[in-house]
Design goal:
The complex is a heterodimer.
Chain A lengths: L4 E2 L2 E5 L4 E6 L7 E7 L5 E8 L4 E4 L2 E6 L4 E6 L8 E11 L5 E5 L3 E6 L1
Parallel strand pairs in A: 2-11
Antiparallel strand pairs in A: 1-3, 3-8, 4-5, 4-9, 6-7, 7-8, 9-10, 9-11
Chain B lengths: L3 E4 L2 E4 L5 E7 L5 E8 L3 E10 L2 E4 L7 E2 L9 E3 L8 E8 L9 E2 L3 E5 L1
Parallel strand pairs in B: 2-11
Antiparallel strand pairs in B: 1-3, 3-8, 4-5, 4-9, 5-6, 7-8, 9-10, 9-11
The chains are: A mainly beta, B mainly beta.
């Protein structure tokens, strides 16, 4: 498909691991990002991965990249109630003749953490 | 504090009354962009700017204008707002268009057009 795709909802129990999946569109995308949006707030860059990496770990966050399948995932270990938010996957999708890039977002996955 | 500042945070207006949403960043970023966020549609890019006096259309530019006369400011102009422009708007900036540093987002402007 032409869109960055994510499932819309995920519900997990506090203390469990959360895995949010994303399928992106352009295998030549150089950077892939995860953003977090808390209620009433803007988007906050959570982490990113360069396309020549398979995995990136940052404290409770693990990003896995499967370039062959154009699949990106975000794993949150020991999920807390404060992790409840919408998580957006994003890729650099388009390169225009003017030398510009466009950052394209998925529709977001709403993570609900049950105490 | 490094930030992107949007104003106003909330705005209710009537159809056809011109309005401007301001966006300012204090990080000397070259790249700035406007998005709108709608339920079920995620974030869609309206306009972007690679540098001063350089702007281009995103995916949903109809009904909007922008200008980039100074590096720090990137206002979004709705000349004749309509109810289908009711949305949550975000301004964002980045050091460069290659996005290796990611975007910094403003806190959003919730616009209602009645």
């Amino acid at each position: 498909g032409e869109d960055v795709e994510q499932s819309l909802f995920l519900s997990v129990r506090e203390g469990d691991s959360s895995v949010i999946n994303c399928t992106y569109t352009d295998s030549s995308s150089t950077y892939l990002y995860w953003y977090k949006q808390e209620p009433g707030a803007g988007l906050q860059l959570l982490t990113y991965i360069f396309s020549n990496m398979d995995m990136k770990q940052d404290q409770r966050l693990t990003v896995l990249l499967n370039k062959k399948d154009k699949h990106l995932s975000l794993r949150i270990a020991d999920t807390q109630t404060g992790d409840s938010a919408i998580y957006f996957c994003a890729e650099i999708l388009r390169y225009s003749g003017a030398g510009s890039y466009q950052l394209t977002f998925g529709k977001g996955t709403k993570l609900s953490v049950i105490p | 504090e490094a930030q992107v500042t949007q104003n106003p945070r909330y705005l209710i207006t009537v159809t056809g009354k011109k309005l401007t949403v301001t966006c300012s960043q204090n990080m000397n970023h070259e790249y700035m962009s406007w998005y709108r966020q709608d339920p079920g549609l995620g974030l869609r890019q309206i306009y972007y700017s690679m540098n001063v006096e350089v702007t281009d259309k995103g995916d949903v530019p109809e009904g909007y204008k922008v200008s980039r006369k100074e590096k720090r400011n990137f206002p979004l102009i709705l000349e004749s707002p309509s109810p289908n422009q009711t949305s949550l708007y975000f301004c964002a900036s980045s050091l460069s268009s290659s996005f290796s540093y990611g975007y910094t987002f403003g806190s959003g402007t919730r616009l209602t057009v009645v």
